[in-house]
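Q: I'm building a small set of examples for a reading group on sequence design. Run inverse folding on the following structure and report the sequence directly after it, with nothing in between.
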């Protein structure tokens, strides 16, 4: 019976670490995919010497930059989780930073689509970026509330 009680606290930590590792590797794959996409786009557009090159490469590059920064934030959260510091203000701030970056990426994409010349195809996935960013910001605020509740509980005991 005591063996079961000892395993219970470690199991959620393993799950959190596994989820964070999967998220980190997924971000790495997205960044790698963005690099490959940009390289192929540069190759294709390099053959066609037009002034529309910047309108193709800029949205992809900004999204790749945002994914890189989000991957770094996830790495920092993972590092805190490994130190067994899950419910701390730094993690909630990092989650909110991820949300703000994703929402700003969506707003940048929609603003860029307004200035894109006619005839250049634009990506319409910016709406999901804004929605996802706002949702992640909300999750960051919930996480911050959880940190406050944990601190109040520690003071009560």
């Amino acid at each position: 019976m005591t063996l079961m009680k000892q395993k219970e606290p470690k199991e959620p930590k393993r799950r959190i670490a596994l989820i964070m590792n999967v998220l980190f590797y997924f971000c790495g794959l997205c960044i790698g995919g963005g690099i490959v996409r940009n390289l192929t786009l540069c190759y294709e557009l390099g053959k066609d010497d037009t002034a529309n090159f910047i309108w193709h490469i800029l949205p992809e590059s900004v999204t790749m930059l945002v994914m890189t920064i989000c991957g770094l934030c996830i790495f920092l959260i993972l590092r805190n989780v490994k130190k067994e510091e899950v419910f701390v203000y730094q993690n909630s701030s990092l989650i909110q930073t991820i949300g703000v970056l994703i929402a700003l990426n969506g707003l940048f994409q929609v603003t860029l689509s307004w200035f894109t010349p006619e005839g250049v195809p634009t990506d319409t996935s910016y709406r999901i970026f804004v929605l996802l960013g706002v949702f992640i910001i909300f999750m960051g605020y919930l996480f911050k509330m959880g940190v406050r509740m944990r601190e109040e509980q520690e003071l009560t005991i």
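The chain has one domain: 2-152.
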